[in-house]
């Protein structure tokens, strides 16, 4: 099906005629846009998932599993490229697809990692997967974090619960390019120590001298000797300097809400604050019409937004 | 321009059906619908609008994205049949009387055998569309056609690229028509490959594309005469005058933006029963769902029409629903058509056919909604169209508004 469609892609024709009202992405635009469009046309059909097999399942917490999947076609795996913050549709045939952040490092060409919290129909089915099982992956999708624009800035990552999955790829990328950034602070909180994801990362982050990692849990817990307190409270105590700093947040809505208030008190400007949204999605490519927040589709205009951008949108989160 | 005698229409359609599937409006059980045409079927052009636009012929109610089949395999050593399992059990629990093997559990791992994308598209000629129906396709083309450099939809595109749209201009617009209000008109040629205009004894036909020009090659067309052209122009002008402009387009987007939090949404949506009829009869509504259907080891991934009034449309697995209240879902439909879509695609997602007004079981009138929410005071009360829905100057939710919305087809309405 591929070739013919590519040849007759109406957008291509429009571009030639100069009549295209190209959608504007306010950061990291042209390159990203091109990459997104290309990805959708690899097979000439953006709805056709790339087949992948599960190579590893990691039980992160009682209700979160990470799946490491590898495209069955080695060439696809090797040439796969994405930007931190982009998402993918992970699906099982017969069940359906859901959107998850790709949380492995962009430099990792061995597998893609998706972390899935058991919540609904698709995630429950995904939790049954074991090594060797086949899944369908449509990725990458969406607008990533503008990590290159962040060069030479201090980075503050604020994560709660499964929100860590949306920021992990970005953190890994920034740590791999550590010399490009100023101070890096990771603040991660969960309800209990048991609910902390990515224990393997946390251990490494805590052992590193060049980043500061603060882990907190909501309440005292037997055997927990670390910090106790809600993420916004801890953030307020940390009182990071807003100068030349980028704050990237992801977590439950209530955490986001209070963290934003704290950041505002600390005088972070809306342009310095990034978050990534999730919505129910079907097509994942800006067509099916359900993940909109006002005129923006979370799947293609997001999922990453700056606070400044979010304030422009109607309150329909 | 050409002329086609009315009596030659069946022969013309038969000629077309030699190379493509012909679709035309026909009356079945008192209802005018676009249906596959075959020789002998009478084309119904008297009723102004078919019950639904012809969108389902390009964007069907449901279609198969892909098919898949699972082949069950398992690496673990396991009994192949129930008999084997019973034997094993007997061996392992010899002397103890053991349990009973009822069935062998399904294998733990499954291997995907095949996934195939489905893109079947046959050439179609759709005759008898009204200009608003054709504009519906133009507006959907932007969504599915990768406007703005994003993804495009191969399934829609496959059908759309081999479809020819033969439009018949309207000679008797209804009171619910408001095509002129959204930039169209009863003789608008946007999206038409050929525009036919009714004149005494036949149609004046004008091609607007290469596909259309090819259609006019049919030898049954006669050269058009001066009086026929004049009659066509007269008919178009007359129809044009009959369609009112019920709201101002200019300030609409700004009005919707400003009124996003307006309490009027609550009032306007109060009598909405979330049935979604307006979305299904709409020639422009395109939002869809994707679901998997499985029978044993084989299944299909399907796309089907969805309806933004359905609460589960945006319901997330966590239980959170960004549009959990009816007014917010109601608001989304109008905002999508006149604010969100225009922002993305530089056009409107409404062609003014008025079907949503005619078929709404609670008589919600899009013109009223837009007049109120568009924040403009100049309502088209008492204009040529009989003032349906544009009623009086009082704001919103007036149940009497739209009471005279539907015309001839109203009898079909009382199901």
Explain what you see.
The complex is a heterodimer of chains A (317) and B (415). With 317 residues, chain A is α/β, with parallel strands linked by helices. Chain A folds into two domains: 9-141, Elongation Factor Tu (Ef-tu), domain 3 (Beta Barrel), CATH 2.40.30; 154-276, Rossmann fold (3-Layer(aba) Sandwich), CATH 3.40.50.80. Chain A contains ten helices and 15 strands. Chain A has helices at residues 2-8, 10-17, 29-40, 74-79, 121-126, 164-176, 199-207, 231-238, 253-265, 307-312; strands at 50-61, 64-71, 87-92, 96-101, 112-117, 134-141, 154-160, 184-190, 212-217, 227-228, 245-250, 273-276, 292-293, 296-297, 304-306. A seven-stranded mixed sheet of chain A has the order 10-9-8-7-11-12-15, sandwiched between helices. Chain A has a six-stranded antiparallel sheet with strand order 4-3-6-1-2-5. A two-stranded antiparallel ribbon of chain A has the order 13-14. In chain A, helix 8 (231-238) packs parallel to helix 9 (253-265). The longest helix of chain A has 13 residues, at 164-176. Chain A starts with a helix and ends in a 5-residue tail after the last helix. By secondary structure, chain B is an alpha+beta fold. Helix content of chain B is 28%, strand content 19%. Chain B contains twelve helices and twelve strands. Chain B is globular. Chain B starts with a strand and ends in a 42-residue tail after the last helix. Residues 105-110 and 377-415 of chain B have low confidence and may be disordered. The chains are: A alpha/beta (317), B alpha+beta (415). At the A-B interface, helix 2, helix 3, strand 4, helix 5 and strand 13 of A face strand 4, strand 5, helix 3, helix 4 and strand 11 of B.
